[in-house]
Amino acid sequence: PPGQDALLLLKTLQLLWTKKEMKKLKEEIRRGFAGLEDPLAGLLDMLESSSDWKGKGHSLGYYITTELQLWIKEHPALQQSGIKLKKLQARALRILAQCPANLLDPLISIYQLHTADRNYLLEHVSHLYHRGHYKEAAMLSIKLKLQPDQDVEKMCTPLLLQDKSNLVEDYVGEYPELQSKLLQILDTWCEPGFNINNITRQYQGLSRYKPDKFNRKMLSKLVFRLLDRFNVDPALCPNVINQRHLRTLNYLFYKRFVEKTMTWENWTDHVQSTVGENQWLQGHLIELLISYCDLNTAARWAQRFNLPKEMLPYGVADELQKLQIQERVEEAVKADNYEESKKKDYYQLPIPRANIHFLQTWEEMLPCWEKVLQPGQVVGIDMEWRPSFGMVGKPRVSLLQIALKDEVFLLDLPRLLEQAETEGEKEKLPRFIQMLYLDAAITKLGYGMSGDLNSLAATCSALKDTDKQARGVVDLLKVDKQVDVLSSEQSYEDRGFRQPEKGLSLLVQHVLGKPLDKTEQLSNWEKRPLREEQILYAASDAYCLLEIYEKLCKDPASFGLSSDLTESLVGKPSIKPRAKKQLNKQEVPSPSGQQCRGSDKETLCAPAPISPKEFSVVCDNMLQGLGRYLRCLGVDVRMLENEDDHRKAAEIARQEGRVILTSGLPYQTLQSQVAEGRCFSVNCSEKAREQALQVLKHFNVQVSLADIFSRCQ
User: Fold this and answer.
1) Which CATH number fits domain 355-486+501-567: 1.10.10.60, 3.20.190.10, 3.30.420.10, 3.30.70.270?
2) Which pLDDT tens digit goes with each residue over 445-483?
């Protein structure tokens, strides 16, 4: 009977497969196919009578199929056509409906399914879809490139409900038109008045449905990931962008009125650029101002935006009529007093204002080039960029500060790069920066230099390998990790309410006596002209590095450093560990968009090596990729869900004796709720693999081959 030879061959192959005699198996497959009248029909007979290939991983069915695929390439005359091929394709499609992903490509190739009638293929996929096999329907559509003829919303919605957003990304991956369509659909689901249950109600019997994963927060994250991956214009998603801007507004109000760490001018700059001409955001801004300030302030902003009276809340319209245009004299007096008090409280630049040079043209750059590129020169380097507040894209450096003993140069990077581009000399500025970083005879001081250099590379591609090639670099962040906290309990009675110092500001306080004034840190550094406060802040940030270095070199012992400071810098500290309060090295919480400087925490004394089985962690909800990666390596991992409060991590850590892995702003809260060393901040901008390596290195976890996939995934 037809197919009998194929089934006899299958029994022989099953015996060899069981015995793991792979060489004989391969020979027998090829010999068997050569002896079959119709090898293509024979393969289908085998697959239809066996079910081992339905599971994941490499099965006998998979092995036979891939061998036949290779064998056919060597014997092209065996390819079928016409009615005979159509019958084979119909049988192959029935198998494709049940087979795992690894069998799709070989079967599609063997049975030339790309040449099959498109309507027939679409009908088959539709049949799969209506039987509730949404994942299989999508995967088959991707392999057969059927997406342009399908309804993207219909195909992707059940996948999103099953938390298969990666498959959705692949589904639209090669079709810009579908990417835009999908983003517009997702954006309409994020409209303030939209009821998300309208979507979920249609799929009530859905298997593996994860309603907790299908919410506005998840959709918003997905939209931003797709915008970034496919480089689509964000204007296509006004609802999601508005919600993100509204969160930025709330964050700015928190920084200004709760933390009190932003100046009014700086805050105003950001609020204006966030709200722009958008009346919806302007309305929300007025409501926030009423809540945090008063009717008078809300009315002034309403006047600035020229908002129609019918849009204004009760009381603001009345206040608007009473508003006086001129500024009150008391405000000016108050501002003068504030400036005086700042001088008393914060680090002050010891050089005259005339010695700070803002450079925007190549002619202005030449004296800087000559003075900086001198053998034996010591320079302080810092960079500023506009905080992204979670929007798409990497930060681009707006200002590069280079401090010498007597003067500071502020390089307007966007303007200088633009000028070099128009003059056809775009390599000029990168060459200067490379000469500076590659010259071992010039000592470059920085704080968290790797983050700065990554942003520099994102700004100018010619500088992408500078961090690997740099010579003569002293990163004071590494010294900061070794400096003894000599006087952490200082009196702040005369300083009023202020957030505790951190990062470079804390190091400046410990070494030079006063902290940096960081109120301009989250400035809009792209806006020109820069305000005077921004210029002084930028110059101070670079110049203070020179003073710290000089003081540490003069008397390293009093700061708990090795007598040879360079020895401390290359990671051979000779200081004794002391049970004193650890410095908080987080320079900037990640919601600001500026990268966390200082997440790369090296311990002074490496802990004893442990195996992954002995290491248990709880991953915050922004690090789920890291959690999955560590679990693959055998680590005992618990992960917070997207909607969980970050504080739940501390609760789990205390109850189950786990280490917390987190990133950015939550680190500030969580580290104080567990024992020292039991909370670790990971760089959120890195991929899961790099994050995992960082964690394993820090806690000295030794992974063996046996550990990999030793836990249930």
Assistant:
1) 3.30.420.10
2) 999 888 889 889 988 888 888 888 889 899 988 877 777
